[in-house]
Design brief:
mainly beta, binds calcium ion, two-stranded antiparallel ribbon
Length: 231
């Protein structure tokens, strides 16, 4: 541990320096009001092995370059299930994340995705997702991928995956399942350059359906658009 420590400190210094150079600022988003009913989180934790600990209170600052904004807000959104069971696909990124009884979109069972077109190649630093937090539950196979094209054939990359048994067949995920809260799930996208963001899930611990209250994609449009000409 003693030998690892200086390396860690060095890595943290480099990371801090990188963002400082770009004018790093803490990522800010509005956290919706907490509304919890149903299975208590500690009971759910027993049912849901290898659970990631839910954040307590406020999350520590997540630093992003100055000028980072939510690029997803009201951008074009599509889904694997074009006719939601409840709500509208546009609820995914309409900026409304209050946990009311009607303020979420419900997609069919099995693995489903929603996809946001950021409109241009962008550097993505963080993704915030709120599936459904009116009760303590966890979603299965939460996977986030980014790509240069809408069909995910050009430069697709997986930036988050907690499908540990590969039941959604996008590879074995190394991330851990988590319980939904009003704090949302913050995913580090590490500056990945892409235009399209796709989020998967495969039902949840309460039922087989898939839900979204809101998705935010924090980043900056890329100063040099991706060109195929010189590849
Ligand atoms: Ca919404
Ligand atoms: Ca799985």
């Amino acid at each position: 541990m003693v030998r690892v420590f200086p390396v860690l400190v060095f890595a943290i210094c480099i990371a801090s320096w990188t963002f400082a150079e770009e004018g790093g600022v803490p990522l800010k988003t509005e956290i919706p009001e907490e509304i919890l009913a149903g299975t208590p989180p500690d009971v759910l934790a027993m049912l849901f092995p290898n659970l990631e600990k839910p954040p307590k209170g406020e999350r520590p600052d997540f630093m992003v370059p100055k000028g980072t904004v939510n690029l997803a807000l009201k951008k074009k959104v599509t889904a694997s299930d074009p006719e939601p069971v409840l709500g509208e696909i546009t609820y995914v990124n309409d900026g409304n994340k209050e946990a009311t009884e009607t303020n979420f979109v419900e997609l069919s069972p099995k693995t489903q995705w929603v996809q946001i077109d950021l409109g241009q190649p962008s550097h993505i630093y963080a993704i915030y997702v709120w599936h459904f937090f009116r009760e303590a539950r966890g979603y299965h196979d939460v996977i986030v991928r980014v790509a240069d094209d809408a069909k995910f054939t050009k430069n697709p990359r997986t930036i988050y995956n907690n499908d540990q048994d590969n039941s959604s067949r996008l590879g074995i995920g190394r991330d851990r399942p988590y319980i939904e809260t009003n704090l949302g799930k913050l995913i580090n996208a590490k500056g990945a350059k892409a235009r399209y963001v796709r989020l998967y899930s495969k039902g949840n611990t309460a039922n087989s359906l898939n839900h979204y209250v809101e998705v935010e994609v924090f980043g900056k449009p890329s100063p040099s658009p991706v060109s195929n000409r010189y590849r």
